[in-house]
Specification:
116 residues; alpha+beta; three-stranded antiparallel beta sheet; 4 helices; 33% helix
């Protein structure tokens, strides 16, 4: 028996009740996920598009090494990565960095890269 979907503009919640098993399932989707992944794929096709972020401050930073934009992860995929065991919220930045690198090497994580 399908229940109405709940959509707050960012996430869509779908509830389904299986009468024969008396099981209620809840699925959360992010309608913008496909938009983010499609944009990431386009950005990977044009590696010259991304520049050192420090270069955008009008020359105020000598080294121009604020870093580079590496990835864009839709929230739903981030939450799934946490459930899959990637420690992306670890307080230790070295561990968090290693976990992000490990995630971005996975098939799902590669979709989030904006540059290879």
């Amino acid at each position: 028996m399908p229940a109405p979907d709940v959509y707050d503009g960012l996430f869509r919640s779908e509830f389904h009740f299986q009468e024969h098993t008396e099981e209620l399932t809840h699925k959360v989707t992010q309608p913008s996920e496909e938009i983010i992944l499609r944009r990431n794929a386009e950005m990977r096709k044009n590696p010259g598009l991304l520049h050192d972020l420090g270069a955008q401050d009008g020359g105020k930073t000598k080294s121009q090494t604020w870093g580079r934009w590496l990835c864009s992860i839709p929230h739903i995929m981030f939450e799934k990565a946490l459930r899959d065991g990637y420690d992306l919220t670890c307080p230790d930045k070295e561990i968090r960095s290693k976990e992000l690198h490990r995630y971005l090497q996975s098939e799902e994580g590669k979709k989030c890269l904006v540059q290879e």
